[in-house]
Amino acid sequence: MSELSRSGRDFSRRSLLKAGTGLTVGAGLGLGAGIGAAAPAAATNGVGQTGTPLCQNPGGDSASQQGLGCGDLGIPYHRQHDNSWGYVFGDSYGGPNQGDNYLGSPVMLNQATFDSSGATPISFTWAMPTYGQARQTFNYRHGANNGLGDVEVTRIPNDCIEFGGRTYIQYTSVFTWGPPAGYDGSVCSGVAYSDDYGVTWTDFGYHWPGDRTGGNESLYGMWSFAGIDADGFLYIYSKRWNGSHNNSADQGLIQLFRFTQEDFHNGAWQNQQNWAEVSSGNWQWTSNAYPTPLFPAANNFGEFSVKNINGTYCMSYFDVDNYAIYTRTSPRPEGGWSVPLPQIVGDYRYPTYWGKPQVPSLYGGYIHPGSASATSLTLIVSQWPGNNAPNPYRVLQFDGINP
Predict the structure, then answer these.
(1) Which of 205, 249, 272, 395 is least crowded, fewest Cβ atoms below 10 Å from its Cβ?
(2) What are phi and psi of 83, to 5 degrees?
(3) What backbone torsions phi and psi does residue 261 show, to the nearest 5 degrees?
(4) What pLDDT does 11 receive?
(5) Cα separation of 170 and 161, whole Å?
């Protein structure tokens, strides 16, 4: 199990980011000195939850009852084997404050039933690996070389999926939150799997190199499992990872590939099929060319999420340049994407943002795979209110989002 004592080193996701680069979410965005204050989210649709915090209220919320005081991300996934729901957190603490019993990353909480209408907020029923005792699920040490090629500050989950009796987490091994411009700050990225639904984890042997292992700014750093399509393939979107959101090289390009379920189960990565423009205007699924980025290098895409909701592919992403979480949809994983729409914003800098829920210092924005419909999504949004705020992380629930 992981080393919980950090010898006084601060491995908090956002504070390391701030100390390392000055390029925090909100830095240089003209937000003023009040960025640390968590403003209430404005309700815009009248449906369900509009910014309900899912942790950071010791004794008064279900997360603390399961041993998690605060954490970020809260990536939702469907526990197919028993029709329950899981939530995967990044760096987490046993209390509400940074430094209160560091739990590690990733940390997982589960929920027996999810109310997709949003009438009742998400409530965690049990923790992994045991009830009421949330702790790091991966077996590695922070601030140490665990055999992946360099020292790991932490391992950050990017997405989780369960199918065929096995649970998978794609993660990034972080070397530094504050890399120099042009570097992604990672050791590598990998996929871990669990055959007991999240209690114990095994790492696949292959890892996608990060800048510390010869693969700087690889588009395989951060994945989103869109789900298994009616055609039987598992579709995966991926992009460069950078904890500072400083995508200096590519502005957050996103690519698409797929696997058969059997190949993914077996870690047969050589059988990956790529969506690529093999000649001008001619896009094909191929194993003979690298994936072609889906969108032009126009915006700084941070954390993102793609999910197949009742046959419609829904995408959400944190647009760093525009300081908001946007959504768009497509009838197929390959494309036909709608225009991006702002849904949750950091401030009211543009007229199109007026009246939207406002969450200063936001990031993330993960689509709940159990959302009511493709026109009524549940999003899980993270907030980092600043080093001097009493609670370093907030995870918020928004329902009724129409992309």
Answers:
(1) 205
(2) 60, 30
(3) -60, -40
(4) 36
(5) 9
Buried b (16+ CB within 10 A) or exposed e, 141-168: ebeeebebbbbbbbbbbbbbbbbeebbb
Assigned domain for 327 exists: yes
Sheet holding 70-71, edge to edge: 70-71, 92-93, 102-104
DSSP 169: E
Report residue 67 as tokens: 């041993």
Residue 233 lies in a domain: yes
pTM above 0.70, yes or no: yes
Phi then psi for residue 255, to 5 deg, are: -125, 170
Domain that holds residue 128: 13-250+263-269+298-401
3-class secondary-structure state, position 36: helix
Counting as low any pLDDT under 70, the low residues of the chain are 1-46, 244, 246-251, 298-299, 385-392
Looking up tokens 């509400």, which residue turns up? 96
Q: Find out whether 392 and 378 touch, Cβ atoms under 8 Å.
A: no
Spatial CB neighbours of 102, under 8 Å, sequence gap ≥ 6: 4, 5, 6, 11, 91, 92, 93, 94
The per-residue DSSP string of 128-147 comes to SSSTT---B-S---TTEE-S
Classify residue 34 as exposed, middle or buried by CB count within 10 Å of its CB (0-12, 13-18, 19+).
exposed
Number of domain units in the chain: 1
What pLDDT was estimated at residue 14? 42
Q: What is the predicted pLDDT for the residue at 18? A: 31
* pLDDT > 90: percent of the chain: 73
Give the pLDDT confidence score for residue 296 in this predicted structure: 81
pLDDT, position 301: 87
> What CATH number did the domain enclosing 116 receive?
2.115.10
Assess if residue 19 is contained within a domain. yes
Residue 360, in any domain of the structure: yes
Secondary structure (DSSP) of 210-269: -GGGT-TT-TTSEEEEEEE-TTSEEEEEEE---TT---TTTSS-EEEEEEEHHHHHHT-G
Number of residues written out for the chain: 403
For the beta carbon of residue 250, count every other beta carbon within 10 angstroms: 16
